[in-house]
Amino acid sequence: MIGSNRREQTHQRIVDTAARAIRRGGYQGVGLADIMKAAGLTHGGFYAHFANRDALLVEAIEQAGVASAQSMIDATARREARGAGRFAALVSTYLADIHLSKIEEGCPIAALLSEMPRQSAEVQVASRRRIRAFVAAIRERLPETADDAAADIVAATLVGALQMARALGDGPEGRAFLAAQRTALMNTYGAGEAST
Question: DSSP assignment, residue 136?
Answer without folding.
Answer: H
